[in-house]
Amino acid sequence: MSLPKAVSFIVCLFLITLFSHAQNLLPPIYNYSLLEYKGGSKNWGLAVNEKGELFVANNKGLLHYDGERWHLNKLPNNTIIRSVAAVGDKIYTGSYEEFGHWKKNELGFLEYTSLTPLINDHEFTSEEFWEILPVHDSILFRSFSAIYIFRNGKVKVIDPPEVISDMMVYQDRTIVALSTRGLCELKEDQLIPLENQNQLQGMTITDMILLNGGILVGTKLNGCYFFDGSTLIPWETQINEELKLHQLNKLLLLNTDKMAFGTIKNGVYIFDPVSDTYQILNRGSGLQNNTVLSMLQFRDQFWLGLDNGIARARLNYPITYYTDYSGALGMVYDIANYNDRLYLGSNTGVFYFEDDELKFVNGSLGHVWDLEEVDGDLLCGHNTGTYKIIDNKFEKISDVSGGYEIKKVPEQYNTYIQGTYNGLTKFEKEQQGNWQVKKIRGVGFPIKQLCFESPTIVWAAHPYKGLFRIHLKEDYDEILRTQQYHDEGSPSEYNIKIYNIKNQIVFNSEGKWYKYDPIVDRIIVFDEFQRFNDKELLFVDNDHFWFVEGEGEKEIINTDLKTDSLLISDLPLRERLAPDSQKMVRIGDSTLFVTLNDGFANINPSKLKSQLDNVALPKPNITFIRDEMRPYATTGSDEIEMAYPDSRIITVQVAAPELMQARYRYRLEGAKVHSGYAENGFIQFQNLPHGEYQIQVFAVGIDNEVSEPALLEFKIAPPWFLSNLMIAIYILLTLATIATIRWYNRRKLTRKQRELELRMKKEQDERMAELEREKLAKEVKLKQNELASTTLNIAKKNEMILELKNMLVVNKDKFSNSQRYRSFIKKLNNSIQDTEDWKRFEVNFKELHEDFFERLLKKYPILTPKDLKLCAYLKMNLSTKEIAPLMAISIRGVEIHRYRLRKKLKINSSENLSNFLITF
Prior knowledge:
Layout: H1 9-15, E1 29-32, H2 34-37, E2 43-48, E3 54-58, E4 61-65, E5 70-73, E6 81-87, E7 90-95, E8 98-104, E9 110-114, E10 131-135, E11 138-142, E12 147-151, E13 154-158, E14 164-170, E15 173-178, E16 182-187, E17 190-193, E18 205-211, E19 214-219, E20 224-227, E21 232-234, H3 238-246, E22 248-253, E23 259-263, E24 268-272, E25 277-281, E26 292-298, E27 301-306, E28 309-314, E29 319-323, E30 332-338, E31 341-346, E32 349-354, E33 357-360, E34 368-374, E35 377-382, E36 385-390, E37 393-398, E38 405-408, E39 415-420, E40 423-429, E41 435-439, E42 449-454, E43 457-462, E44 466-472, E45 479-484, E46 497-501, E47 504-509, E48 512-517, E49 522-525, E50 535-541, E51 544-549, E52 556-559, E53 565-568, H4 571-576, E54 584-586, E55 592-596, E56 599-603, H5 605-614, E57 621-626, E58 631-632, E59 640-642, E60 649-655, E61 663-670, E62 674-678, E63 682-686, E64 691-700, E65 710-716, H6 724-810, H7 818-832, H8 835-848, H9 852-859, H10 865-875, H11 880-887, H12 891-905, H13 913-918
Parallel strand pairs: 59-65
Antiparallel strand pairs: 1-28, 2-3, 3-4, 4-5, 6-7, 7-8, 8-9, 10-11, 11-12, 12-13, 14-15, 15-16, 16-17, 18-19, 19-20, 20-21, 22-23, 23-24, 24-25, 26-27, 27-28, 29-56, 30-31, 31-32, 32-33, 34-35, 35-36, 36-37, 38-39, 39-40, 40-41, 42-43, 43-44, 44-45, 46-47, 47-48, 48-49, 50-51, 51-52, 52-53, ...
């Protein structure tokens, strides 16, 4: 119930006092809206096949739900489908002047076959077929005016004079309800009235079911009657009066020995004939609509076709829920059972149940943190203080704001400590029953949780500043000292939670578990809980612990830390847990309550464990697999092979219609391996390499156990460049390439060999030439040495002759015979000017410098033989002193001759004459 903000506080208190309708602990209800199933609003009939797939007679056509997805199948004339029945692998439907059956093709799509062409010699009179009844080898289609019997490929029409309202099979007899005569038996295609039907005359019979060996007949406004085969009497039960008020429409006998009554005005009544009690599923308890047009049970699933939408509930489920759809309750923070009355503490106040009605405790408006039975009183830790609850009264006993958690002081009879918004508060109960409350001095920060280590040592957690180990005085009026722990390895200071587990102080910080070691006075890792990191502790039940994941799936785990373990992954429970505020409370021996953000859940652990142990999970169905171009049938024997270009994205669609909101685990094996979980029934793979694959799909239960796998094998063809033809081409190309390479290498080898031979020949020629050059160089050197030797010998000879001549000239007077003297001088002069020496020199010189004289004369034709001789000596780099004896002149004469030669060669004084001739 929501109110405008402008409404005053007093009016709010008055209106929130009572809920106007009863609330029950109910199984989880799942609603499917028109936007989800994408059909019409009204759902006239329901049917399931052996796999648990649902078929709905809908205003727009036949709805098919495979457990994950809805598909709308329209008739060729787009008329409303009023009735549906599943018989074997066929789905029979009735519509306006039309009935027939649907059957799945190889891809799993429904295809329709009309049976009306089989009708002979009969015309429809605006008939709609409201009911389909399989009887032995026949299928009966009922309109208000006639019954059409389909048998052995033929249709026979029975046309009674009265309106037909219902049909059923009773003791192997077909019972038909008529508008004025009550019940009749269809026998040999004739309607025979039954006895004692007077009470039903003038009543509209809406439905019939088998009950206790007889027939329970439901009427529109007159409740139910029981027919035992011979006598018809009113059905004397408490619920019958309710049914008269709310216009009964449908009856269903449930497999839990209970009965379901669908009404037009007030939803569904779940009736227990043993206890003569009932529960109501209607708008107030979660249904989208109060008008029930059809009902169906498949195992523990209870389907409802509504005037606007479809709903599904789980029957005999070990987890039931109380849900506040009005919004007045808000988020529940704590639950307490006091004097056989269930109290709820929420962010809007305190509520309690009385005769299944949720009522508000007057004066409790505001945030409630804690409900605790303390020393015979029910105390409420409230935003504005702490209160004692007496029936519907809210009596304040403490003005200290924010009563978080109250704990009994160990070894004290009637002393309690409470954490509040600004410290600790002491509670003591007097003998008269009054509570004495006193704030403990010495601490002023908020304390949401506390745990006693000893009677005078209490651990407290600051929301942001970490842990405090507080030492109290023995009278608990004041704090002696406070310790904080900031050692390396200590937990984070933010949002620490404290627990006392088997006399150990245990902490949870940022998902990690620690404990206090009093021997070393340090906080250390709590090894026993390490595999439960990233989980919060909900409840400690003797040797069993209840954990819940702080993030992610929010699954609940019950374990004894050894071998016994139970995992609850019920989706409604996981979706509605309040982060950081969830709490589990045990009430009685086998009932656990869990606070939720819009109510609470009731868990029966023994019933849950029994169901999980005794009920096998169904194997899921792989409904189809498709690539980017088309779907492939998964039921045929043909091998599924996909073209590589179309397999970039492969989608596998799975469903488990026997489960509600199923989860799946899958594993893909083949050229690439994948595994994971899926919750929406679609498993997708991208960019798989070519090859053969097998996918295994498991249904996952609420305890995380898995079913037998559904298997599917498929193959991704190799890309075109890896096809057999291309591989053959590649082989041919490879062989051709090898042959080409071999041919090329041979040519290259031949060319290299030829080049090598040429290079070797060239090198050999070069070596021969080098040897020749060396030989020539040696010969030149030899000739140079020979020339030098010859020149030196000539020079020495001429020098000696000149010395002899000079000696003769000096001793001329000693010669008595002048004639003989002149003869000696002449002979010496002839020896100096001997041309043979020059000729030998010239020959040797020309061998070394072959065309020197020719080039010199060609350029300087004015040169004399004496000039050429001087040029030859200068080219040999002989000094003036060495040249003088060769030319039989003095050194001065050589210098003069050199000067004249320079003039003839036109060489300036700065240039060396010898260098010029050497390089000429």
